[in-house]
Amino acid sequence: MVAPADDAVFRPVRTGNPFEETVERLLQAIKLGVVMPGDRLPAERDLATRLNVSRVTLREAIHALTEAGYVESRRGRYGGTFVNERLPKPRRTAAKRIARELGDGLDDALILRDALETGAAEAAANRALSEAEEAHLERCLADTAAAKLTDYRRFDSRLHLAIAEVTGSASLTAATADVRMRLNELLDAIPLLERNIAHSNDQHAVIVAAILADDPEAARQAMQEHLSGTAVLLRGFLA
Length: 239
Hints:
It is a single chain. The protein is mostly helical. It folds into 2 domains: about 5-85, Winged helix-like DNA-binding domain superfamily/Winged helix DNA-binding domain (Arc Repressor Mutant, subunit A, Orthogonal Bundle); about 95-239, GntR ligand-binding domain-like (Four Helix Bundle (Hemerythrin (Met), subunit A)), CATH 1.20.120. Helices cover about 70% and strands about 5% of the residues. It contains 11 helices and 2 strands; from the N terminus they run H-H-H-H-E-E-H-H-H-H-H-H-H. Helix 2 crosses helix 4 (about 55-70), helix 3 crosses helix 4 and helix 6 packs antiparallel against helix 11 (about 215-239). The chain is globular and about 50 Å long. The N and C termini lie far apart (about 45 Å). The relative contact order is 0.15. The mean pLDDT is about 90.
C-alpha cells in the first residue's frame, strides 16, 4: 500500500507553534510539488483535521500564504484555495551565507538525505509495486524530464518523494520531505546548470528503471551516485 506524499506533508503539526507549523506544512506541499500550480488544496475542514489545527489557525496560515503570493481563494461552487499558477521566485540569497548559517547542519542534512534516499530506492525495488505505483513513478519521471528550468527543482523534488512513496512507508516519505526542505533553500541559491540537469535526468531514468526491474542493489547504487553528484555540486559552489 502506497504512503501518499500528501499524507506525509499534511500530517498533524506539533503543539507549541501551530500557526508557524501549518504555514510550513502548506509551503512544503507547494515547494515539493505535492500540490502543483493550479491545483486546489484539500477542503478546509478536511485539511484542518489532517493537520490537527483549528480552522481559525488554518485560515490565518492560508491568509499569510495568500499575502506572500503562493495561493489564492476563489468563491462559488467550484471555489476553494488554489495554488497560484505563477509562484514567487526563490530568493537568490548568497549560497555561502546560507551555508554559514547552516554550519554543521549542511553535512548533517546531506548525510541524512543519503541514508534516507538510497534506502528508499532499495526498498522500492524490493517491493512488488502495483500498476498504479509504477505508473506514478513513470509519470513523475516524465514530468521532471520535461520540466522548464524555472520549475525543475519542484518536479525533481516530486520525483524523489514518489520513490519514497512507493516504499509504502509513511515515516520514510515524511522524513524525505523534511530533509529535502532543509536543503531546498541552499539548492535554490545556486544556479541551475543545463548540463547538470541533463545528467540528473539520465540518472533519474536509471534509478527508476532499476526500481521497476526489481533490482535493489542497482537502485541503491544509482541513487548513491546521483546524490553524490548533488553534494559535490553544492560543496563546489560553497568552496
